[in-house]
Specification:
It is a single chain. This protein is mostly helical. The protein has one domain (about 40-235). The chain is built from eleven helices and no strands. It has helices at about 1-20, 25-65, 70-90, 100, 105-120, 120-125, 130-150, 155-175, 185, 190-205, 210-230. The model is unreliable at about 1-20 (pLDDT under 50).
């Protein structure tokens, strides 16, 4: 009889749990989780495509300044806009990389290249256009890189590093292709700004801040820090080679 009562109680508990899980409160929780998942995915896509566009503009602008032909400008715009994301996706196991599997990334890169090639005078009216676009792309990619890394289960430190890598990868490839010293190695705060922006996203996630608010805060912090570093000349200590007389 004890066993029968136990089985009956167990069945009744399962019944109550099933009824509760199919009730309004469960459906409301499930719909809320689904809505948040859709919002995060949409946010990631928006930041990724936005970063691709502005980095592609910076790549195309550098190509025009170095007097490349149309094909060279488009290659540079694609490389600058997508290299960081491709490396990020390869490291987190997102294969094939979204920049290759999703036609929108190629389309956005080509659009940015064509706009810059044919309407360069309009783009060039901005003050230091390459650096401004580069700062905007740095912020968007740092945020999207960290967010995507977290979505794929990467730990906090790894997510911050991948956010930084996503932000600086396109600029490095752009500079190498036109035979310049990469901006990240020679100029004001660059990788540090990307790292701080990515850290803001990770910390926001740990504190259960809404995804959009954390991403927006990270992007604003990264862009603001990079922009102010350009305006004020903030930079890390520079290595000083010893003079021959000191050797």
């Amino acid at each position: 009889m004890g066993r029968t009562f136990g089985n009956t109680l167990f069945s009744y508990s399962n019944c109550l749990e099933t009824t509760f899980e199919s009730g309004p409160r469960y459906r409301r929780r499930r719909n809320l989780a689904l809505s948040e998942h859709i919002l995060v995915n949409t946010l990631l896509m928006a930041f990724d495509l936005g970063g691709t566009f502005v980095f592609a503009l910076s790549g195309a602008t550098a190509g025009v300044k170095h007097r490349l032909d149309l094909f060279g400008v488009l290659v540079l715009s694609f490389a600058a806009g997508n290299s960081g994301g491709i490396v990020r996706d390869a490291l987190i196991g997102a294969a094939p990389p979204v920049a290759i599997s999703d036609w929108r990334y190629t389309a956005v890169s080509i659009l940015a290249g064509l706009i810059t090639f044919y309407w360069y005078r309009i783009i060039n009216r901005l003050s230091s256009p390459v650096l401004v676009f580069d700062a905007a792309g740095l912020a968007l990619f740092a945020v999207s890189g960290a967010s995507k890394a977290l979505a794929f289960g990467v730990g906090p430190v790894g997510a911050m590093l991948l956010g930084m890598l996503t932000g600086i990868g396109g600029g490095i490839v752009r500079d190498v292709l036109v035979r310049d010293i990469p901006t990240v190695l020679r100029t004001e705060l660059y990788a540090v700004a990307a790292l701080i922006g990515a850290a803001a996203v990770v910390i926001g996630r740990m504190l259960h801040v809404p995804s959009f608010a954390a991403a927006l805060a990270g992007a604003v912090i990264c862009f603001g820090l990079r922009f102010m570093a350009m305006r004020r000349g903030w930079q890390l200590p520079i290595a000083r080679a010893p003079k021959q007389s000191d050797q």
